[in-house]
Amino acid sequence: MPDFLLNALIAGLTLALVAGPLGSFVVWRRMAYFGDTLSHAALLGVALGLLLGLSPTLAVTAGCLLLALVLVTLQQRQPLASDTLLGILAPTTLSLGLVALSFMKDVRIDLMAYLFGDLLAVSPTDLAWIVGGSALVLLALCGLWRPLLAVTVHEELARVEGLPVAGLRLALMLLIAVVIAVAMKIVGVLLITSLLIIPAAAAQRHARTPEQMAIGASLLGLLAVSGGLALSWFQDTPAGPSIVVAAATLFLFSLALPRRA
C-alpha cells in the first residue's frame, strides 16, 4: 500500500472511531446546526492562520474552540433564539473566511481541498494532529461518558443530583470543536458534520442502549471511511465526498433493515 494511502486510511479510521460516540451526543442533543456553524468557521480559522503565519490546523483548532466559547456565551445572554443565532453566524464566518482568503494574493491555496477535504494528501504532520486530537477527545469522552449521558437524558434531574450541567455542556461543545478542527483535512468544512451525524443516525435505529449506539456508529464510520477510500482509489472520485456517500448508503441500508424489538 502506498504511504499516502496508508496515511489517509489511518487518519480516516481514527476520526471515524471518535466520531461515533461524539456523533451520538450530537444526534441525541440535536446539535447538528451547532456543528455546522463550527465547521463553517473553520475556513475563517484557515485564513487567520495563513495571515498570522501559523499552522492551519493549529489556527483552526484555536478558532473553533474560541467560537464554541463565544456561542455558549451568546446563547446564554442574547434574546435571539439559538437556531437564529447559529443561522447568522454560520454563513457569516464562512463568508468572512472566503473573503479573507481572496485578499491573500501571494498565498496559493487549494480552496476545494479546504471545502471538501483532501484525504489522500494527508501528511505525517497532519496525521499526528488527527491521531493526537482524536485520542484526546476519545479519552475525555470515556471520562465524561456517564455525566454527559445523565445531562443528555434529563438535564434538570442531573442538576438536582449536583452535576455541573453548564460545564458539561461546554465540555461537549469544545470536544465537537476539536473533532471538527482535525476532521477538516479529511472531509472539508462543508461535509464535516455528516461524518458525525450519518453513522450515528444509522446506528440509532438498531441500538438498544447508548453504548450500543456509540459503538455501532463507530463501526459504521469505519466502514464508510474504508468504502469511500476504496471508491476514491478505484474510480478516481474525491475522497471526502466519497466517504459521505458511503455513509449515506449505509444509512439507507439501515432503514431497509427491520428495527430491533
TrEMBL record:
| CDD domains on file | TM_ABC_iron-siderophores_like
Q: Which SUPFAM superfamilies match?
A: ABC transporter involved in vitamin B12 uptake, BtuC
What are the alphabetically sorted keywords of the record?
A: Cell inner membrane, Cell membrane, Ion transport, Membrane, Transmembrane, Transmembrane helix, Transport, Zinc, Zinc transport
Q: Which residue ranges does UniProt annotate as crossing the membrane? A: 6-28, 40-72, 84-104, 125-148, 168-201, 213-233, 239-257
Quote the subcellular location field of this record: Cell inner membrane; Cell membrane
> Does this UniProt record's set of keywords contain Cell membrane?
yes
Asked if Methyltransferase is a keyword of the record, the answer is no
- Membrane topology of this protein: Multi-pass membrane protein
GO terms, biological process: response to zinc ion; transmembrane transport; zinc ion transport
Which positions are tagged coiled coil?
none
GO cellular component term, pick one: ATP-binding cassette (ABC) transporter complex
By sequence similarity, the record places it as follows: Belongs to the ABC-3 integral membrane protein family.
Q: What does this protein do?
A: Involved in the high-affinity zinc uptake transport system.
Task: List the NCBIfam families hit by this protein, alphabetically.
Answer: PRK09543.1 (NF007089)
Q: What is this protein called?
A: High-affinity zinc uptake system membrane protein ZnuB
Annotated organism of origin:
Zestomonas carbonaria
Query: Which classification does the entry list for the species?
Result: Bacteria, Pseudomonadati, Pseudomonadota, Gammaproteobacteria, Pseudomonadales
Record gene name:
znuB
